[in-house]
Amino acid sequence: MRDRLTLLLLVALAACGKAEPMLGPGESLAAGDSAVASLYRAGLSFGVTRLEVSRRLGRPDSTSIAPSPNRHDTTATDTVRFLGFGRLAYIFLQPARAQHEFLLQVETGDPGRPDLRPILIGRTPAGEVRTRLGEPSRTDTLADTLALWYTNPGEAADDMVGLYLLRDTLRLVRWVPYVD
Question: Is the dihedral of CA 24, 135, 174, 171 positive or negative?
Answer without folding.
Answer: positive
